[in-house]
Design goal:
This protein has twelve helices and no strands. With 295 residues, the protein is mainly alpha-helical. Helix 2 (24-41) crosses helix 11 (234-262).
Length: 295
């Protein structure tokens, strides 16, 4: 992670520099293009990961795996349709832990498993609310479109402070008692400063895109390739891309279908976000199991 973080910082500020030359509309289109490519691709090999995880036990067939996976996705879609506020809350909780887990793999072997889970959740959720804080009105509008509930921006600031204090206390604990993590703690605190600059200097979509692609999706793809093929190489990336191609295309077709049906309606933003959230639910479970197996 140390070597890649240097690359990620350079890429992040390059993306920030890039938007100074393009219009806001172009920025949004470019952001969605990255989300549709690397963003969805990083979850396109979930079925292969499941098969790899069950290789020794041979518990679940490919057909059953596909049925279970589809069931979870459809459950997510229905949850957003009938209980959108509950679904959104679950999505934020899952995404927070998922982001923190990817960022803090070094805590996998920490003696206190409950502390590792809590820290990863607090860290990832703090990043989300850091992004939300710099774009309060946009986030408020999206929540209103999805849930029809108008959340005062006061709560976004309040939750940022709550998670910020919790994160500070946990970081101080790790820094004082776990000497082996001090270097990484300093590095991650610096990353939080970088994220603050990125989120403050870009719009909501572009800020999310930079973090989601550069800091989450690409590292996740590298971890998955290593888990599936033992080492990271261009050859193994081609294998990874080939095995996830059909799922990736199916996801793009689903999103395209939503666009052509609802492109003239305000509800499209809510449906688009809900669709991405629904396919995130099973991906979260697969990656959680993958990290447990690596541990």
């Amino acid at each position: 992670m140390y070597k890649y973080s240097n690359i990620a910082i350079v890429l992040s500020f390059f993306c920030l520099w890039l938007i100074s030359f393009i219009s806001v509309n172009a920025e949004i289109i470019l952001g969605f293009s990255f989300i549709f490519s690397f963003g969805i691709l990083h979850g396109a090999n979930d079925l292969q990961l499941i098969q790899q995880l069950n290789l020794k036990q041979n518990k679940i067939s490919v057909k059953k795996t596909l049925i279970y996976y589809t069931f979870i996705v459809l459950t997510g879609v229905l949850l957003f349709y009938y209980l959108p506020f509950v679904a959104l809350l679950i999505f934020i909780i899952i995404s927070g832990y998922h982001f923190g887990e990817q960022q803090w793999q070094s805590l996998a072997n920490f003696d206190k498993k409950w502390f590792s889970i809590c820290f990863q959740f607090v860290y990832g959720t703090f990043i989300l609310f850091l992004l939300f804080n710099f774009h309060q009105l946009e986030v408020q509008n999206i929540i209103l479109e999805i849930t029809t509930v108008n959340i005062p921006t006061f709560y976004i600031v309040l939750l940022l402070k709550v998670f910020g204090i919790a994160l500070l206390l946990q970081i101080l604990y790790l820094y004082i008692y776990i000497n082996s993590l001090r270097r990484e703690i300093i590095l991650e605190v610096f990353h939080l400063l970088v994220f603050s600059i990125l989120f403050m200097s870009s719009n909501l979509i572009w800020g999310f895109t930079i973090y989601f692609i550069v800091w989450h999706s690409i590292p996740s793809i590298l971890d998955q390739i290593k888990f599936l093929h033992l080492d990271v190489s261009f050859k193994n990336f081609k294998l990874y891309f080939k095995s996830g191609f059909l799922y990736w295309i199916a996801s793009l077709i689903g999103i395209a279908g939503l666009y052509f049906i609802f492109k003239d309606e305000k509800i499209f933003n809510a449906l688009f976000f809900s669709f991405l959230a629904a396919i995130t639910f099973p991906h979260f479970l697969v990656i959680l199991k993958m990290f447990d197996r690596k541990e």
